[in-house]
Amino acid sequence: MENPVTLSNLRLPKIETPTGLLEGVFARIRQEQVRLARMRTTLYSVGMILSLGTGSLVTVSLARSLRASGFYEYASLALSGDSLFLTYWRELSFSLLESVPFITLLMFLVVLLVLVWTAANTLTNVRKIVRIA
Amino acid sequence: MRAIVLSMPATDEELLQEYLNGDEAAFERLVERHLTPLYAFIYRLCGNPDEAKDLTQETFLKAWKNVRNFDQERSFKTWLFAIARNTTFDYLRKRKQILFSELDTETESFESSLEDTLPLPEELFAQNESQQRVEQALLSLSPDYRSIVLLHDTDSLTFEAIAEIVGKPMNTVKSQYRRALLQMRAFLSQMPK
Which of A48, B21, B94, B127 gives 20 to 30 Å between its CA and that of A12? Predict the structure, then answer.
């Protein structure tokens, strides 16, 4: 049986919250939101700069690889509308495909994706800072 | 005759879900709802209004930071008061106002974990006990006992909820509550009128 012990006559004075406590709580939370947003902005900005740097190197490497593999020549032949291409379209298509530097292309796409993602997050966090502050 | 539709205020769980769905104002409403009882609880634990103000802000900040990890099967109020209690005890510990032994009751004896079966009179204190005397009696308790009494009597939490907040078995909480009341009565009887 639960002990029916109560302090119903325990008359403690009512505690009033001090002025500004509610605003203080919200101010602390806003402060923390801005701090976190600033930290994320810094991290994403660094990521963006690194991916820009890496991206430019990968782009140059991709362009060189495409040039060296003969991709440009096969592509211009395909787009020329020459009757030779129409006759040997199958062989030329395979050659075009083989000349694509897939690894470098994949790296380029990954770096591009990272760049877009970091840029979007940087912008989101900057907007958050502006909105809260 | 016009029908008047009264809408029930949203529960803590509903507000929490609204906040998690992107409604920032929902968390603000949760803060407004629990601010006064939480501040009163912390104030009675630490005894200083300025410290209580800081600790209340810190409690809500911790709640905000961890709200996405909150298990929604639990009571939000219970969770909030657990944060408040732990935050206050950490602060009191750093201030070295209390010894670790006063907080650490994991070494509680077997006997104290048993539920007392002797009934106590409902009115433990004389009707005309002044508020000041009762407050002093409350302050004479250890922070651990004090928090249990406050949670039960001023915040109207069940022993089950209190057990969850303080991280002890329910029987231990009931025993400590009873012991706290006895200590308060002994203190009051020794105080000059």
Answer: B94
